[in-house]
Amino acid sequence: MEFRQLLYFLTVLQTGSFTQAAKKLNMAQPPLSRQIKNLEAILGVQLLTRSANGVTPTAAGKLLATYAQQLLELRDQADHQIRFAGTAVSGRLRLGLISSAVGLLPPKLASLTQYYPDIQLDIQEGNTYQLLEKLTARNLDAAIVRTPFSTEHIQSKALRIERIVAVVPNKYAKDLKATLDVAALEPLPLIIYRRFSDVFEQTFFAKNIRPFIACYCDDARTAVQWANAKLGVALVPESVATAYLGTGMQIHPINYQPWRTQIQLIWPDTVIASPILEKFIEIFDN
Fold first, then answer.
1. 163-259 in CATH: which number?
2. Ramachandran category for residue 65: left, alpha or beta (phi over 0 → left; psi -120 to 50 → alpha)
């Protein structure tokens, strides 16, 4: 199986036609068809189904398409990194970033690009688990994510520790102290960011309190937006609360040490760091 065969295969899928794929690849159709047949022969499976409506992948073809895209991206990345290994710091850095960590980057990146202007940044946003998946697949060089998470074969550097806070509509804020203990949450309708639900529920169980969970959601920003709509009290990291707080709202820190979350820079420990990645990691030492 050759890289060019994978490229041909993906191009046929993208265009849905051997004719259009051949035009895009600047080659004749018969050689393209032969290469796809050779690929099917090598793998021992049919990859494409041809019909009057075009070309569609079989189940095996869909699976190959996923791997083919990753293999081609890895080939390009390997070529790039090897060419620049041991040379001046230049080239591309593929960085994953959670939305709540955006504010950490501009000053650091400004100092990096000031001294190394040839660096090209490819920043991809997503949640922690999406970025971990991309990092594991080698589609990112590094990522800035938030605990808790569990994975193997990574190195990490702690960037910031944040406390969990309650985003409280004024109508629920009467008689609340500026800083709350966990027990003070019991009479409040809570909006829970699902990533922290196990931590919260274990704490409630251990302290023998049973607050009403009004809503679960999969994004801390959404939790704050629901609180802004006066639907309940959101429990989220402090930076998210501060960034998305609406009018008529208050932020009350939770005075409970285990309710902490850490923003971390992570990168694979199974590959040699490129000069670009090494410089990027170094800027967070200061």
1. 3.40.190.10
2. alpha
- Specify the pLDDT at position 108: 74
The answer to whether residues 96 and 143 touch, using CB atoms and an 8 Å cutoff, is yes
| Beta carbons within 10 angstroms of residue 278's beta carbon | 12
Closest to 91 in 3D by CA, of 122, 124, 121, 119 = 119
Measured in degrees and rounded to the nearest 5, phi and psi for residue 206 equal -65, -35
Q: Where in the chain is the domain with CATH 1.10.10.10?
A: 3-81
Task: Report the C-alpha gap between 9 and 36 in whole angstroms.
Answer: 6
- What is residue 232's predicted lDDT score, i.e. its pLDDT? 95
Confirm or reject CATH 1.10.10.10 for domain 3-81, answering yes or no.
Answer: yes
- List b or e across 203-239, with b for residues whose CB sees 16 or more CB atoms inside 10 angstroms: bbeeeeeebeebeebeebbbbbbbbbeeebbbbbbbb
Instruction: Specify the length of the chain in residues.
Output: 286
**Got the DSSP string for 155-186?**
EEEEEEEEEEEEEEEGGG-TT--SSB-GGGGT
Q: What pTM was estimated for this model as a whole?
A: 0.64
Cα(192)–Cα(194) distance, rounded to whole angstroms? Answer: 6
Which DSSP letter does residue 269 get? Answer: S
Confidence of residue 260 (pLDDT cuts 50, 70, 90): very high
pLDDT beyond 70 at 209: yes
